[in-house]
Design goal:
The protein is mainly alpha-helical and 168 residues long. The chain contains six helices and two strands, in the order αααααββα. This is DinB family protein.
Length: 168
């Protein structure tokens, strides 16, 4: 369970956009890598009272990607988005028929669409938000860093409890 290079090594002198995108992608990879080498049963193991499981973290982050990039930034109606885009309690639920490979593919697809939508925008481009008025692509990147890093930390703890593996 390793990620090639630390994000800060990749962009220690880069511009703002490259730095933001590199760190977002770094945490996307870290989170997905937490599933490496585990069984279907292990990734579904509930070790805390909440709905949080390793596979559920990845599933939830796919929903968060769709919500911020497809629905909010891309202005797509929720009905036109494949999968949960609310990031609510339902976004943590993984059907018994869904495999690790299925959830990885879902997350990878959501991230690919996020990159595609963001590529067509500038950091200062802003879109409507029901609570905050407007949010910029820059704000969404920073928020996603917060979201992904927090959940990667949760995944660190869950993974350590399962098999003792620590680190990226």
């Amino acid at each position: 369970m390793t990620v090639d290079l630390e994000a800060e090594e990749l962009v220690s002198t880069a511009g703002e956009r490259e730095t933001l995108e590199t760190f977002v992608d770094y945490y996307r990879r870290v989170l997905a890598a937490k599933l490496d080498g585990l069984s279907e049963a292990e990734v579904r193991r509930r070790q805390v009272p909440s709905l949080t499981t390793l596979i559920g973290l990845v599933k939830h982050c796919a929903a968060v990607e769709r919500g911020w990039f497809q629905q909010r930034l891309g202005q797509r109606p929720a009905a036109e988005i494949s999968g949960n885009s609310r990031g609510d309690d339902d976004s943590w639920e993984v059907a018994e028929t869904e495999t690790i490979a299925d959830v990885r593919a879902e997350f990878a697809q959501a991230c690919a669409v996020s990159r595609e939508i963001a590529a067509g925008m500038e950091l200062d481009d802003a879109v409507p938000h029901h609570r905050m008025g407007r949010v910029s692509l820059r704000w969404i990147y920073v928020h996603m860093l917060e979201e992904l890093a927090r959940h990667a930390g949760h995944a660190d703890i869950l993974r350590e409890q399962i098999d003792g593996a620590t680190g990226d």
